[in-house]
Specification:
By secondary structure, the protein is of the alpha+beta class. The chain is 31% helix and 32% strand. It has a single domain, classed as Alpha-Beta Plaits. Helix 1 crosses helix 2. The two termini are 23 Å apart.
Length: 97
């Protein structure tokens, strides 16, 4: 069952997020199980909402790619994350290739 992942990482800036995107390369080398990703910034830091095929897919991405990438860029600490089972997914603007 697909899961919704919500992440809050206080203190992360747009420049740091963009550096991690480049380092990890999830847009050019799609992580297995990744379905949807949106990032935004509040006055206090980064907010991310993802949809993954499973919590295990997300955890594998975190362990093998995301955390090594954030460490390489120099982002300290750990994010606060919450994972919930999805009830419904609707993406009206999505057009599969």
């Amino acid at each position: 069952m697909a899961v919704l992942m919500m992440l809050e990482w206080e203190g992360v800036t747009p420049d740091q997020y963009d550096a991690v995107r480049k380092q990890v390369g999830w847009e050019t080398n799609r992580p297995e199980g990744g379905m949807f990703h949106v990032a935004a910034f509040s006055p206090t830091g980064l907010r991310v909402v993802d949809v993954w095929e499973s919590a295990e897919h997300f955890q594998r991405f975190v362990e093998t790619r995301l955390m090594p990438g954030t460490q390489a860029v120099g982002i300290p600490g750990q994010p606060k994350t919450e994972i919930l089972s999805t009830h419904a997914i609707f993406t009206p603007a999505y057009r599969p290739a």
